[in-house]
Specification:
Distance between the termini: 42 Å
GO molecular function: carboxypeptidase activity
Shape: elongated
Structural class: mainly beta
Keywords: Carboxypeptidase, Hydrolase, Protease, Signal
InterPro entries: CarboxyPept-like_regulatory (IPR008969), DUF5686 (IPR043741)
Protein name: DUF5686 and carboxypeptidase regulatory-like domain-containing protein
Number of domains: 3
Largest sheet: 18 strands, antiparallel
Helix content: 10-25%
Radius of gyration: 31 Å
Organism: Zunongwangia pacifica
Number of strands: 48
Strand content: over 45%
């Protein structure tokens, strides 16, 4: 029965569009397509050809249709299109006299003057700048139908859910109703009050973040699905775009039709299209933009003039992504997207010579805005989250959707919903998304158990090969707690290490968890771990391989973690740690030598990302856009005579991370970290500057994998400090594109550290230096030479420069792999 329905639907669609005739406008001399040529129809609003010169006419039952085609610098021509035409090619001839009038006798491109005025008038035309505040609602429909012509999203996409849907499911349909409010003091907030997703038991909340950043063309950067392009009305627009006036559109409020095209496409990502600029206030009336390459991305925006506030308000935005004809990669969802195959498959539509673009559509995102309330004081929930999902959003009845759908929900949509539901189940998409999300955090889910991948295999100079198994239970066992741990064995030291822990979920929405655990393992001397450091998964840990100075410990701990706001998380932890077998090291204090001792501590840690954007769902908060700075802080207090503790001390750590991202894909990163300790501190609990070089004489014998925040020329165990400051600066140049598969990245690096240590005589049987003079190294990386592999070199200079050239030089691999 479903096959019969599908066949009837296809035939009905064909008959409904049987009189649609595709065509193209080109130059009769060069054969180049004429994008945005004006096609005038009898008694109808003119239409424009697309960037590639293509258009589509509907005869509407007529035997023929007379049209007029005009383009700046070309003679206007009239054509007659009849139902006998299967496709039409319209050729225009250049009018050199008009071209000379516009471009030779004019001292300056007149389009630039219009764009200058539009940029100057952004303050009065952009509602976010012109109005104190406003509210409105939007209805969005998001469709992916990619099964007939597979398209691959790059594996470096920042959104694993979208990558799975595009690459594996190739089918998705959701609807959303959102209440938006904006004030100049508080910025914008979105509340999702209705959400409907076909096929999934639980909503794919991450998809909601995709249209938070389709900003207007007034912004300096125009974002589409988490990818930023230079804005055609940006402050520096003339650096990135060239402009041309195509026509003047005579409507109730006439507009200039201005064409824009990227100047530096290889340097800065740009769009190509047209803007309709109001002839009175130079505000945006309408936009059309397109990117053509491996995929075809098309954007349409329609605005409506508000007479009371004299501003144009966005009414509808439609974004379509279709298979392209090949060429450059197009970036969306934070990664490149390209065709799995350029060649189109045979289909019913191709047999009947229908326009192949519509039949191969694989993404369509439409948003209609309505019920604007201008110059209001928005009433909003007190939360720092950018998007909030209402508790009832997933349970709205049909009457809610019928009253809020501002775009037709057609019989095709209903059929697609059935199809998507079937695809999601048969291809087990929910499971694939679960696996990808877990692997991004270093786990692989097996039934009720998440296997910890980093515990399976490791190697270092102390343990040799280290094999084991670890993980934690997931919500399939219980959504109120988890039980986890690991069991490993080192073949070099021939010792078993293990951990057992549990987390009790007191409040999932605020991330409030009670934690308990016991660990018997080894740890690097002088390492300092932030409890609230952002989670990182390393399949290969570069520094771990060459470390040779560990201590054994047994630790009991209990803690409470809580997310104060989506941007600010905290953890309190109490622990008792018994330290033993730290090689030959002994700690001299009050005339007594300690080979073994107990450290009892209470600590508190914070992680704060004040400008990052979060999505608040009924279950949790989800990061949707990381912005800098990111600040991590921790204080540990050691107690003597409490829980058998031997020493009193205070350790503090503060790390500041800041990244500057640019449209040309270059980036500059700064990491500033400071550590400070007072009191009685054994060497095991001091600080180091992340050294990453062994003491082998030959450079190639020191060859290893470089780290991101480690000093590549600093030898292990060379310096220890109880006061330490470090600065890491990395500047990545824009990728050098030799081909779609070979785009190496050059990174310039500068690292500096300074510190000191008191009571060096307390630390027995070990030689090391105080870092009381500035340590400096400079480095160069060439990353992604082959897949995620690259090469790195670094050179030590300054106060700790060594006498031999090779002693100051490091040469290593780099490894950049994303999961």
């Amino acid at each position: 029965m479903r096959l019969v329905f599908t066949f009837l639907f296809i035939i009905a669609g064909f008959l409904a569009n049987a009189q649609q005739i595709p065509g193209k406008v080109i130059s009769a001399i060069t054969g180049e397509p004429l994008g945005y040529a004006k096609i005038t129809l009898p008694q109808n609003t003119p239409i424009l050809s697309k960037i590639d010169g293509s258009f589509q006419l509907n005869l509407n039952g007529k035997e023929s249709l007379k049209i007029s085609v005009s383009y700046l610098g070309f003679y206007t021509r009239e054509f007659t299109i009849s139902e006998e035409n299967k496709t039409v090619l319209l050729q225009l001839y250049p009018d050199y006299e008009k071209l000379n009038t516009v471009y030779i006798s004019s001292p300056r491109n007149p389009a630039n003057r219009l764009v200058e005025k539009a940029i100057k008038n952004r303050e009065i035309n952009d509602p976010r700048k012109a109005l104190g505040g406003f509210e409105y609602y939007s209805y969005s429909k998001f469709l992916i139908d990619n099964d007939k012509n597979p398209v691959k999203l790059a594996t470096d996409s920042t959104n694993s859910e979208i990558a799975t849907i595009v690459n594996v499911a190739r089918a998705y349909l959701s609807e959303k109703v959102t209440k938006h409010n904006y004030s100049q003091k508080q910025g914008g907030k979105d509340e999702v009050i209705g959400l409907k997703t076909a096929g999934f038991k639980k909503p794919i909340y991450d998809v909601l973040s995709l249209d938070i950043y389709p900003t207007s063309f007034y912004e300096d950067e125009y974002s589409i699905f988490q990818t930023e392009y230079a804005g055609p009305l940006a402050k520096n627009a003339f650096r990135n775009y060239e402009y041309r006036i195509l026509d003047t559109i005579n409507t109730k409020r006439p507009s200039y039709l201005v064409y824009f095209k990227p100047k530096r496409e290889k340097v800065v990502a740009g769009l190509e299209g047209v803007i309709y600029l109001d002839t009175l206030n130079y505000g945006i009336q309408k936009t059309e933009a397109r990117l053509i390459g491996e995929i075809d991305l098309e954007i349409h925006e329609d605005y409506e003039f508000n007479t009371s506030e004299k501003v144009w308000l966005l009414q509808k935005r439609d974004i379509k992504i279709r298979p392209g004809s090949g060429g450059k990669d197009i970036s969306v969802f934070g990664g490149n997207i390209s065709l799995g195959t350029i060649q189109r498959r045979l289909s019913i539509s191709s047999i009947f010579n229908k326009d192949p673009i519509d039949t191969n559509l694989y993404l369509d995102a439409t948003t209609a805005n309505y019920d604007y309330q201008l110059n209001t004081r928005p009433q909003r929930e007190e939360t720092s989250a950018k998007i909030v999902v209402d508790q009832k959003a997933n349970d709205r009845d049909p009457s809610f959707w019928n009253s809020n759908r501002k775009e037709p929900y057609t019989s095709k949509d209903e059929a697609t919903a059935i199809y998507v539901d079937s695809i999601i189940k048969t291809r087990n998409i929910e499971r694939k998304i679960e696996v990808k999300k877990a692997m991004a955090n270093g786990y692989y889910p097996i039934a009720f158990w998440d296997l910890q991948l980093s515990k399976i295999f490791k190697y270092n100079n102390f343990e040799g090969i280290r094999l084991g198994i670890g993980g934690k239970t997931n919500d399939h066992l219980s959504n109120k707690f988890n039980i986890g741990g690991y069991f490993v064995y080192g073949f070099g030291d021939q010792k078993i290490k293990y951990n057992i822990n549990t987390s009790i979920y007191l409040n999932k929405l605020t991330g409030t968890n009670l934690k308990f655990g016991y660990t018997k393992d080894i740890k690097e001397v002088a390492s300092f771990d932030y409890l609230k450091a952002p989670p990182k998964f390393y399949l290969i840990e570069p520094r771990f391989v060459n470390i040779n100075f560990f201590y054994n410990f047994k630790q009991y701990y209990a803690g409470l973690e809580h997310r104060i706001t989506p941007q600010l998380s905290s953890e309190i932890r109490f622990s008792q740690t018994k330290v033993f077998d730290a090689r030959d090291y002994e700690f001299l204090y009050n005339g007594e030598l300690y080979q073994e001792y107990t450290i009892s501590t209470a600590g508190i840690s914070f992680s704060w990302e004040p400008f990052s954007e979060y999505l608040k769902t009924p279950e949790s908060s989800i990061l949707i856009e990381r912005r800098f700075p990111r600040i991590t802080a921790q204080i540990d207090k050691g107690f003597a005579d409490v829980a058998d503790g031997d020493f009193n001390f205070l350790r503090t750590g503060l790390k500041l991370e800041y990244t500057i991202k640019r449209l040309d894909l270059s980036r500059t990163e700064f990491i500033l970290e400071g550590n400070y300790a007072t009191g009685t501190l054994p060497l095991t609990h001091t600080f180091y500057a992340y050294p990453n070089s062994s003491r082998q004489e030959a450079i190639l014998k020191r060859f290893s994998v470089a780290g991101k925040t480690s000093f590549e020329t600093m030898y292990y165990n060379e310096f220890y400090s109880d006061r330490l400051a470090m600065l890491h600066m990395r500047h990545q140049l824009r990728p050098i594109k030799f081909s779609n598969f070979f785009q190496p990245e050059i990174v310039l690096i500068s690292r500096h550290a300074i510190g000191d240590i008191g009571h060096m005589d307390r630390h027995q049987n070990i030689d090391f230096k105080s870092l009381d003079q500035a340590y400096s190294e400079v480095g160069l990386e060439i990353n992604k030479i082959i897949s995620g592999f690259g090469l790195s070199t670094a050179y030590r200079y300054g106060a700790y420069h060594l006498p031999g050239f090779s002693q100051n030089l490091a040469f290593k691999f780099t490894l950049n792999i994303k999961f």
